[in-house]
Specification:
alpha+beta; 9-stranded mixed sheet; 4-stranded antiparallel sheet; 11 helices; disordered C terminus
């Protein structure tokens, strides 16, 4: 009798897998449409497909609109008989609105707007769709482009998304009398078919310090606009609900007064005229963080809540007002969506050994899986994933995850341990399936490593104070939180103290760079798209004011030294002895390549062994398949080199006096 042979986890298996996104329940609650996209982009343009699945699982999921284009952002027609979506089918790289009917027929292209459609909302009137689009180019714009007379002056010709109205009967697009000189970001129609609530910014910039968000009401019948006043910083997820006192608008935002902290649900009373009353914080004092709101026609909205390693679904209680838990998932739940009545919901769900799939059912659960996008993973032996709970040095309760090497148990330790720090810092590790392109837990566990996934201070899932504690103090308490967890794993005999590595992406890359400037305990470090200088990050990152709040200063306060200098890894480069792998997208506008370049030059100056890898055409996330393959293989190889030397080799801990001249040159590798 032959024994079953486990499938080997390869870089190709990760990069060539597919994952669902953006599920949407039909208004009648019978169907869910969702996107399916490959992890790695194989060609010059991204490709994604639309699939449809029956909520009752009476039929197998099937592709809704075949093609090799980027089909995305599906929404249902109000009668549940057709699906709208955005796609570049008509012209490569230019997104237009399309429609496909469930009864059959060809995909209809509904718009041909120059510059493409950026967002849309089908209305209760089946003949109307609201669009978010920029102004089409004028003759002067075309002349400037043709003659290259295109100097860009700050504040001039700002490309604002404006509201337009598409009439499906005539295909005419017109501009209603609406908010002017504001960037339209989000909109939702009142469930009874009434006015639109619209969220706008002063500018398209992602920097929350520049947005000045405001709320408006747009009455399409009278084509009048009512200004409801300012919204809380980083507002999103607009949702209508009705109380005895009348109509309310709820939305998510970061708890004031700072830009760093836990998210909360804010509620405003919508008056017949004038500014709204409020906002009230409906999540005040919660030891958890709301992540999303879902509107239903009859009853208060549903709220997705990050709660430690799990995710809960709450319902807003009008009698409180507060949030009441109605269901819980042991892991990750995102992208919750509901039928018109709210009796059926769908979401993306992932647990410890199950990758993300679409689940559907009643809000109270349980939700049943209705998609199957990664069957190729079933034959792989994964590392055992454990929940961790421990106390910080100052008594704060912390959590995280431990993944043991595949096929190993705790009593077979100690193992080489790699600590992977999440991004944000306002992200978190839920008890979900830990496999991805950007240095993930199971990718290392299947190669023989134990992996520690900590949730230090600064992340979501433990309330506002927990998340806000890193403002102006990144790398401080969150670093000791991480060290405490590592020490516990060493004392438990799981981690080998002589074979420790650390890595992460974005804020996790910052922490990996910070760590090696403060201890020589790690044998290897991986800095992926990480921050080396917080002043530079405030100056060049997309979220400038948020980054300044994290780092504590910008650099223009005076001659310095500045508070952010004490929180920047590059300030401690002279103390680094640990070999570093630096990975960076060359076109990253979130964390500029200048961050990696600055750190690399400092390591050259002090003779620290490192590899510096730039991925052309890549932004903050690595998208192209060949780059993903390189990243996956390179990260394993890097930790293998320093944490798993062969029997006949030695890999001594790097040690050097700061006064010694630099030794061998650094290694710079370009993956192109």
């Amino acid at each position: 009798m032959m024994e079953d042979v486990a499938t080997e986890l390869t870089a190709e298996l990760v990069a060539d897998s597919s994952a669902p996104r953006a599920p949407v329940v039909s208004p009648d609650g019978c169907w869910v449409v969702y996107e399916v996209a490959a992890t790695g982009q194989a060609g010059e343009r991204p490709v994604s497909h639309l699939w449809i699945a029956a909520v009752d699982r009476s039929t197998a999921p099937q592709e809704l609109a075949a093609g090799m284009t980027a089909d995305r952002s599906p929404q249902w027609a109000p009668d549940s008989e057709a699906v709208f979506f955005l796609s570049d089918r008509a012209e490569d790289g230019t997104t237009q609105l399309h429609r496909i009917r469930l009864a059959g027929g060809d995909v209809e292209t509904l718009t041909a707007w120059s510059g493409g459609i950026h967002g849309y909302l089908p209305l209760s009137d089946p003949d109307l769709v609201v669009l978010f689009v920029q102004d089409e180019p004028t003759d002067e714009d075309r002349r400037r482009a043709r003659e290259r007379d295109d100097a860009r002056v700050w504040g001039e010709r700002v490309p604002l998304d404006r509201i337009r109205l598409l009439d499906l009967r005539t295909r005419e697009i017109r501009t209603p009398v609406t908010v002017v000189d504001r960037h339209a970001v989000e909109m939702v129609q009142r469930p009874d078919g009434g006015p639109l609530a619209v969220l706008t910014w002063a500018t398209p910039d992602l920097d929350p310090g520049s947005q000045a968000p405001r709320l408006h009401l747009l009455d399409l019948e009278s084509e009048t606009t009512q200004d409801l006043g300012p919204a809380v910083a980083q507002a999103s997820s607009l949702t209508w609900w009705r109380a005895e006192t009348g109509w309310h608008l709820a939305y998510l935002a970061v708890t004031p007064p700072g830009l760093v902290g836990g998210t909360a649900v804010f509620d405003v009373v919508v008056p017949l005229s004038g500014a709204a009353a409020g906002p009230r914080n409906l999540a005040d004092g919660m030891a958890a963080c709301p992540l999303g709101l879902v509107q239903v026609a009859s009853g208060p909205p549903l709220v997705v809540v990050a709660d430690g390693l799990d995710t809960a679904v709450h319902r807003l209680d009008p009698g409180g007002p507060h949030l009441v838990e109605v269901a819980r998932v042991d892991g990750l739940l995102t992208a919750l969506t509901a039928s018109r009545s709210g009796d059926v919901v769908a979401a993306l769900v992932s647990t410890a050994y199950e990758p993300v799939n679409v689940h559907a059912g009643a809000p109270e659960g349980p939700l049943a899986v209705i998609s199957d996008t990664r069957p190729e993973y079933r034959g792989i032996r994964w590392g055992t994933q454990e929940r961790l709970s421990y106390e910080a040095s100052d008594g704060v309760m912390l959590d995280g995850l431990l993944i043991l090497p595949a096929g190993k148990t705790r009593n077979e330790g100690p193992f080489p341990l790699v600590t992977l720090v999440h991004g944000g810092p306002d992200d978190r590790y839920a008890d979900q399936f830990m496999l991805g392109v950007h240095i993930s837990g199971q990718w290392l566990a299947t190669a023989g490593y134990a992996v520690f996934l900590p949730n230090p201070r600064g992340g979501q899932g433990h309330g506002h104070a927990f998340a806000a504690s890193v403002a102006g103090a990144v790398g401080m308490d969150e670093w000791t939180d991480i060290v405490t967890g590592i020490d516990l794993l060493i004392s438990d005999g799981i981690a080998d103290p002589d074979r420790l590595g650390i890595g992460g992406w974005s804020h996790g890359g910052f922490m990996a760079a910070w760590a090696i400037g403060h201890t020589d305990r790690f044998r290897a470090s991986l800095m992926g798209a990480g921050i080396s200088d917080w002043g530079m990050q405030a100056a060049t990152g997309e979220y400038g004011a948020f980054e300044a709040a994290l780092g504590g200063s910008t650099g223009w306060e005076g001659t310095g030294p500045h508070p952010h200098d004490q929180l920047s890894p590059v300030s401690f480069a002279s103390k680094i002895r640990t070999p570093v792998l630096i990975l960076q997208g060359e076109d990253d506008t979130n964390v500029s390549p200048s961050q990696a370049e600055f750190f690399h030059r400092a390591l050259v100056r002090f003779g620290v062994e490192h590899e510096y890898v730039l991925y052309p055409r890549e932004g903050h996330a690595i998208r192209e398949r060949n780059h993903q393959l390189d990243l996956l293989r390179r990260t394993r190889d890097w930790f293998d080199r320093w944490l798993m030397p062969s029997v006949n080799e030695t890999s001594p801990r790097p040690s050097r006096s700061p006064n010694e001249p630099p030794p061998t040159p650094w290694q710079a590798k370009d993956s192109s």
